[in-house]
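Sorry, explain these tokens?

***
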Amino acid sequence: MSNERIDLNQFEAITKGKWEVIDTPAGGIDIGVRHSGGHSPVVTFTQGMGEQVRKIERDVADMNAIAAVPELIAELKDLRWKHMQVLRERKDLRDEALRLARKLDMIRTSEEE
């Protein structure tokens, strides 16, 4: 696994809304966003392909994973933000500890004189 971060900006233009696996009236499967009057497909499986993927557990899991992409991206963004907050707080605590250590050194030095 690489230590490089995924650039999440590349996903800014993905279809907005909650993605889900949608069975179509024709027997196919769409992964898309429901809205009043229908849905906007992101990925479409024809009837034949839909019948095939429904039978394979891994394919069903893959469809569910694809449908979860927007939520996963949003959660990753949130976790990155929280991680940055923790790093900032850790730096602030380190800086404060260094300041107090210097102050203590100064007090000890002045007491020794």
